[in-house]
Amino acid sequence: MRTRSHFFPPLVPLILLALLVSGCDRQDPASADQSQPLPKAKVQVIEPAAHMLTEDLPGRIEPARTAEVRARVPGIVLERLFEEGADVKAGDVLFRIDPAPLEAAVAQARGELARAEASIYQANSLVRRYEPLAAARAISQQEYDNAIAAQKSAEAEKLSAQAALETARLNLEYATVRAPIAGRIGRALVTEGALVGQGEATPMARIQQLDPIYADFTQSVDDLLRLRAAAAEGRIEVQEDGAARVRITLGEDGYSQEGRLLFSDVSVEPSTGQVTLRAQLPNPDAVLLPGMYVRVQTELGVEPDAVFIPQRAIRRGTDSIPRVLVVDQEGTVQQRTVELGSMHGSDWRVVSGLEQGERVIVDGVAAFQPGSKVEPVIATPSQGE
């Protein structure tokens, strides 16, 4: 009789073989994770450096001087002697008003002056005749005093006639309307044949001085005080007269012009705490025109350890607090809260929250989460960092 143990030995190798195959099909999860490559994160290494802090502010161009050309005497406009939109010099003739009635007024004033001079002659003669008679008591003292009074009255009438003649001459000169300042003249506000100066000083044209020209802009009081301190301490470059430098840019074509900041006539708006400043700029080609909007860049001083990161590196949650992602020495992503300053181009100035040597993720920050492992890749300037 056979025992059952005779049938088990042939089955043992088969079982061992099955277990071996099963073990080969299964892979350790840890080894599988290590075999997969880590995601690459483009980072910027924080390296503080000295940087000239600037601020870009909106501004508007204003003329250095504006003169309203008005009719100072009544009359009919006979002639316009300028081209609209042209540059004129101080004293250039712009309009001529009919001088005929004004010439007649001058002639009349001359006649009144001649009459006054004749009265003086007559009064002087009477005083000379009465003087010895009064001394001899041949006439009363009252008659002599009346002669003296007539003499003084005649002299006063002469002074009045001379003033009237000077006024008439001035009015005749005003019939020739001249440019009070040099600058660019706009369109004519009256035409030939128009009656001007009848009861009021009729506007006839406007002249604006465009070189130099002003750019008005507003700035916070704190920035203004910082700017003044930086200029006084020599931390920003100033011009020979001590004025701080400014630069304005216009439009998308990149036109820019450097000027000087005028600290005088500074006024503070009580409701906003902003100050109105004025920059003076050369404008020889008249590119800058009154009313244009420009960007005014002012220097605030040099920060010795300034830190800048691209705007796209900033993450903001529902609380609007700015945060960045940094990669530590083990390649782990960490989240960091930062305090931001002003924008400079496409970069934010970081006031606090980052240290020298730290690596900040600057591209695709939405794809990384704190605690994950990454492979940091240093961003180069050619990549826009």
UniProtKB/TrEMBL annotation:
GO cellular component, one term: plasma membrane
Keyword set, alphabetical order: Coiled coil
Subcellular location as annotated: Cell inner membrane
GO-annotated molecular function: transmembrane transporter activity
Keyword Coiled coil: yes
Annotated PROSITE patterns: PROKAR_LIPOPROTEIN (PS51257)
Domain called Multidrug resistance protein MdtA-like C-terminal permuted SH3: residue spans: 305-365
Signal peptide from the UniProt entry: none
All copies of domain Multidrug resistance protein MdtA-like alpha-helical hairpin, residue ranges: 106-175
Main location: membrane
One BP annotation, GO: response to antibiotic
Membrane topology: Lipid-anchor
Domain Multidrug resistance protein MdtA-like beta-barrel, chain residue ranges per copy: 212-301
Recorded family membership: Belongs to the membrane fusion protein (MFP) (TC 8.A.1) family.
Protein name per Swiss-Prot or TrEMBL: Multidrug resistance protein
Species for this entry: Pseudomonas saudimassiliensis
